Amino acid sequence: MTGAGGTTGIAGTITRVHREEWARVVAGLARRLGDLDVAEEMAAEAFATAVERWPDEGVPANPGAWLTTTAYRQAVDRLRREVRRDEKHREALMLTDTPEPLGAIDDDRLRLVFTCCHPALATEARIALTLRLVGGLTVAEIARGFLVEESAMARRITRAKAKIRAARIPYGVPLREDLPARVTGVLAVLYLIFNEGYLTSAPDHAPLRDDLTDEAVRLTRLVHALLPADGEVAGLLALMLLTQARRAARVSAGGELVALGEQDRGAWDRGLVAEGHALVRARLATGEAPGRYQLLAAINAVHTDAPDVRDTAWPQIVALYDQLARLDPSPVVRLNRAIAVAEVDGPQVALAAVDGLPLEGYHTFHATRAELLRRLGRSAPAREAYDRAIALATNAAEIAYLTRRRDQLTGG
């Protein structure tokens, strides 16, 4: 055990350990107990026990192992107290601490992702369940992302776990021949976990959550190892690496988001940039038509290839967005394309493309309009657009950035 270091210090340590270890603890328990509900409940109880005991006993040398062991013992004790147990729980009682062979990839959390992303579950249920169990997001945070009530999201997650149990969906990575049919949903969820870490939606969290982005990258690397020839897996990994490479430059010392064009490119992680570029080039060399993630990675490769923002090949980025829009003509893709169009054809053309997009509830839509109006010298409507973006945004660093940009218009 390490020293307690004061109640406040212990509380901070437990918060950090929760971020870092939640998914690992739940995944390990799910494998051994065979029940997601019990795994999540016992993990929560283990963290509650840590809150009670660590201030007096100190933080264990290996907090994750302590939590897993505590949770498992509590689960066994509870199951022993139950008068009636189904066969699955009887088997759980006979498990030992010796890990069983895990198959092609020995990673409990990847198994948990594939379980949560089973095609028998509705798409939104897969996403919500994975964000909860693997991403460690609270039900309230997930509900905010889906724009639904917290109680409704809690019911959705409960139903998804019940369906996994009732349908006896196996806990594990599917057979290699079944992977291609399952991987699309897995990639979508991993990208969502990465995005939540890249720009946290929860107002009470730090602007960036490296624990989520790092875990999303780690799991995507494992999927890439399973399916090295899959272009979209490689594309998503490249996209994550090229985005993660910029994290040291994304928030100022004062806690404000730093726009891509204003970032210190010397602070970018050149190792990650080089790895991401290599993946993009390898996919281009195959001659296969790129998918959505590959195109997004290529766009980021163009951005990160420019030594200065003035050197950015904007026409190439617009051309890549044109390809992406043919695959995914969503309003968000059209909005992002318009941002690049502003650099090629000017803000007036871009504003005409943005106005009318059905994104009134999306803060980036209003932030983009504000910047375009600003460039056109239309301060009053720009200020209104900034106000709308600030009202909808939840990330503290982004709100600080938008507020400063707005106040520069007013002289504030």
TrEMBL record:
Domain RNA polymerase sigma-70 region: 23-84
Alphabetized UniProt keyword annotations: Sigma factor, Transcription, Transcription regulation
Pfam family, one: Sigma70_r2
Domain DUF6596: 182-282
InterPro entries membership: DUF6596, RNA_pol_sigma70_r2, RNA_pol_sigma70_r4_t2, RNA_pol_sigma_r2, RNA_pol_sigma_r3/r4-like, WH-like_DNA-bd_sf
Domain named RNA polymerase sigma factor 70 region 4 type: residues: 114-164
Organism superkingdom: Bacteria
Family under the similarity heading: Belongs to the sigma-70 factor family. ECF subfamily.
Name of the protein this chain belongs to: Sigma factor-like helix-turn-helix DNA-binding protein
